Amino acid sequence: MAGGSGDIESARSTSDLSLRWGFIRKVYGILMSQLVLTAIVAGIVVAVKPINRALGHTPWISLALGVFALILLCPLYIYRQKHPLNLILLGFFTILLSLTVGFVCAYTRGNIVLQALILTATITIGLTLFTFWAVNRGYDFGFLGPLLFASVLVLIVWGIIQAFFPIVRMLTSVYTLLGALIFSLYIVYDTYLLIQRFDYDEYVWAAVNLYIDVINLFLYILQFLRGNP
To answer: Most buried among 15, 33, 34, 43, using CB within 10 Å?
Structure first.
């Protein structure tokens, strides 16, 4: 009987591991689709002059797109487990954020955009591999959640202050580096959640978290490089 019980537990463990890896592959598949869509939409915004001129002459449109994307996070979270509504909302969210990224890239030199892309890809891949290695050895990154949330609140307040009271370039560089560091750590934290905590039917929300991390990391690196050419 003891041997039979052990076989059952082993089978369950193997099944759970298989399901978890299937879930992880699904999330990264969605994430890659989002990033490809972002590259396409941003490329269109940069290449089609009437579009980027329209956004350039009416910057409130870009701001509105970003605000709508943030608002869309609420229904995305509420319906994160409701298929296919979760995928439809995900598509709209990705397009809105992609248009914002395209607007930023349209007014940045091409070599700086390329540098930011390379740095973002390198950091993201490196931190992802590190997190998988660390979690496999028993490290727990759950403690990062509250710290990172508080750090983002500081970033938001600092950003609002900068908008109304421009500060010296050095402090702007510190702000962008701090933002890049925070979202680098968010990649570690959200990858940890992906491996250990997300339910199998939360694949859309898991992909959204990682997508936001990568996009914000890219934008902060881009902002730093623009200020320090």
So the answer is: 34
